[in-house]
Amino acid sequence: MRHSKRTRLTGEDINNALRVRNVDPLYGFSLNDNSKFQRITNNQHDLFYVEDDEWEFESVISSAMPRVPTDVSFSAHWLAVEGVQPAIPHNPTPPPPLEEESKMETRKKYAPKNDDLQVKAGLPVTNNVEIKPLVQHVLSMEHQIFYEKVTKAMKSEESRDSKTKVAVLNNLEHDTGLAQLLPYFIQFICEQIGIHVRKNFNVLEPMLKMAEALINNKSLYLEPYLHNLMPAILTCVVRRKLGLSMGEKHWSLRELAARILAKICDRYGGSYNTLQPRITRNLMSCFMDTSKSLYTHYGCIVAMGALGREVIRTILVPNLKTYGDLLSTYANDLDPIKREAAARCYNTIVDMLAKLKETVDPLIDIELQKTPIDDLREKLEDSIGKYFADGVLRQIGDEHVIMAIINS
Question: How far apart are CA 184 and CA 192, in angstroms?
């Protein structure tokens, strides 16, 4: 700086001095706005100091206070979904292929100007058009062959293919490389359930087991496809008739669909806070609808039971008194099919009430000692009605369960 007769010290001056002393220079300190130094002489030596700006107290006091900085916040976005980068502003735009670049340059070169274009009167003209690139899944030949084999095996109704179905379901549950095929499997399941729910009962069970296997696969991310999968599963739970002729298997099919429904709520209920309340509300609406069949009621009952003791305690128990009046009308019906359906609903509800024993306060024994059995029976009838109270006393008879029902 002295040899250059400058009053500003630069980062290059420091680096030159370090190079003279055979020391590695400093990197990253070459600023454009360098400090300006003043020189004074003290005892025949030059002393350099940084010249500071002078500020008056009045101007500092009268100046406005700076704005308070905002708190640090974080936002999340997906870098990739099922191996495909979403086209959002946070992610970098992939460069177009060389062929597309040449085509775009040719179009720009020969594109007509806006003044040369003739627009009909009354039509708005805008240049702010956002064109989003299409994101498509690209399946390898191996994935395509695997998909065809899986779908063919799951649609087959021949008994000789039962071992193949077991192997396919085991593969779907444990294979970690099915991310690219997941949307196609979900679409296949929903389409097959929609087609065969009225015609062919035998296809519904393999489709539900296929959905259950995909849900159990911990390496798959099903959240983007829940809105497609949930209606298909709910249909198997609450639909009045499954297939052309319903045999004994439709009861187990509704139980399977209810179990899958509970797994979805258990796994994804934390991410979607409204998932289980919405499902419970739909089930309760069908359960209390007197125009629905007993098959629909049974599906709602087993589904609410699969959702856990809290749903039984807060949703099912308060409505048992009203539902008992409806169900008792089918107990002596002339149609044996309706009597069987009513008995299944009745026994299933009574068995579910036994689960409430684990919700009882340990100190309830003191209250039980002071309460006569007749008073417990009266309170139980007031809570769930005489129809279900008789079943609880006859089939369960546990005083702790009775107190849990009364306190619900």
Answer: 12
